[in-house]
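Backbones bend. To wit:
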Amino acid sequence: MNALTDNTNQSGLLRFITAGSVDDGKSTLIGRLLFDSKGIFADQLDAMSRSKHKRTVGDAVDLSLLTDGLEAEREQGITIDVAYRYFATPKRKFIIADTPGHEQYTRNMVTGASTADAVVILVDVSKVKLREDGGVDLLIQTKRHSTIAHLLQIQHVVVAVNKMDLINYDQAIYDRIVAAYKEFAVSLGLKDITAIPLSALTGDNVVEPTVNMPWYQGPTLITLLESLSVYDASHDAPFRFPVQLVARHNGHEANDFRGYMGRIESGKVAVGDTLVVQPSGQSATVKDILTLEGSHASAVAGQSITLLLNEYLDVSRGDMLAGATQPATLLKQVSADLCWMADEPIDLRRKYWLKHGTRQTAARVTAIDTLLDINTQQRHPASGLKLNDIARVSLTVQQPLAADAYDDIRATGAFILIDEVTHQTVAAGMIRLG
């Protein structure tokens, strides 16, 4: 269960999040990464040293101030919002999402995790309960964030066992914590796990190797992050193109222009390919592929393009253009894992807006099938959902969705529910097929 890879995929951008419980040191860890890798500027360092909210003793720099950007965060000493930071080393570029640790902000963690390639889960050695039988009781937030990482199919999990300086760098305690986490990870189904003993405050094993833990022979955190593969399955997946906009120009019949604009969410397309318009089922062939640079013979996932078709069809925003041999599944009844993100509990009598790709349609949650117990990973019957609950639910949608299982294609397997009165996002869902 080692996340280290060869050097073939080190050049790509890596998106990762930090997650853990309150005061586990997430913001300090990111500050240490930026500070030791020379990812901050002199004026930022000066501003940090003069901050009235400095939470360190003496002249030490409070590195957490690099990510705690809101005034309320600095005053309370906690992370509330998701803070995104960009930095680079000679080997790789990174985007970090620093997510809140408090349970009431779990919804923010879901937001930050939705586009991540890796998650760094911090475990504070001073907070875990060491049992007399040699086991360890992990914190509920460690389990909650690991569960969300699994549901969102984050590829790599890094267990950062933090504040090792508080236990005099004791290997035995570290080994017990790692064993407990890996046992829990097996019950979840997490596979790619790497553990690192470190101290964000002192810098041990963050960017530079430490002399305080000679028993640890693995990589530092930054070395590991530089080495993680970023496998983009979307290039090999079936073609999916949610239509965002229809561009029209009506001139003489020979000069009529109708292009379908959007972003390729998975797969690839080439001139001459046969596509299917979903949900109508009409067939079409690709006449041309346009970008700002001009006409192209082909395009792949991640590119924003305009597709021209040989046929004159009724295609609108919200429709999906898919490969004819592997179209998406049309769903009127949807089974999904739902993370409830609203302060108000779910109301099964109400109608919500469901946003899937570029399509928005009315939806109703018809049943809560099972509620997930974060502690035990068991599913139980439930009659309602409250803030931060995760459940398998059944929904009925007014217009059919051209969708895939979230595990196969993230973009076409994910959706959000929106309150039709307040227009606030109340839930995030991952579609399950079969």
